[in-house]
Design a protein that fits this description.
single chain; mainly beta; 2 domains; 1 helix; globular; Cyanovirin-N; Cyanovirin-N_sf; signal
Length: about 260
Amino acid sequence: MLRGSILLAIASIGFSAVQASISSQCINIRLQNTWLIADCLTGSGTTRIQSSVYLQNRITNHESVLEWQVNGNFASSCTGCTIVSPATLSCSCRPTGGQAVPASINLEDHIAVYSGFLLSNLSGTPTPPVTASSISFPSDPSWQVFYGNTSCYSTNTDTCPNTGVGSETTCSQYPSVSTNDGVLNCFAFRWPVSVPVWETFADFKVVAPSGAYKFQLFDTLDCTGGVKGTIAPNELGTCKEFRKQMYAFSAVPLWNAQT
């Protein structure tokens, strides 16, 4: 379980978003799952911070050619990925209806170092965080979510007439949602049926071996309208009651992560 402050102020860093290359500023450049991780100079002497970028949300496999794309999901059709010096992602990627072939992409085309932070500019010029987390990238970034006191929501009012909550705090013994990579920016579980129906929940439990997350809960399907509930690191592993139906959640990494 995490103890102490999760944030370490880096007072001496100038956060003016000065861009520098990965190869000139970073050491220990590596790939874990689909995260690019490195220890990079902050611009304050020899001080370095560890940070990471989630490549799965930035690169796609287009017929065995790796290309930049928001929410690209390249790992669904690429295997054996490694980082080739200095900062090239190399994989074996399948085309539609064919055998996998070697594919690579230069990560420095859209990822750079900003005041020590690895950040992608694929969606525009990034602004580095004001503070840096003291938490290292976890050896196991996986987590599992367990819903409890579930109901449903549908745009068809006859489909889910009762959206109340039960009187007990109970979470399923089986995971409702899980991931090995740790990223889920906004998730609402839609039932696999023809009519639009989503599962809702009034109780919520998270099991995360690393303890390096907080979870935010929402009463809208698209995670708008403000956070309505949270699971803090010290609440992981506990079935928490919210006394209202929640529709969606986000998993927020507590290390230096651009998701």
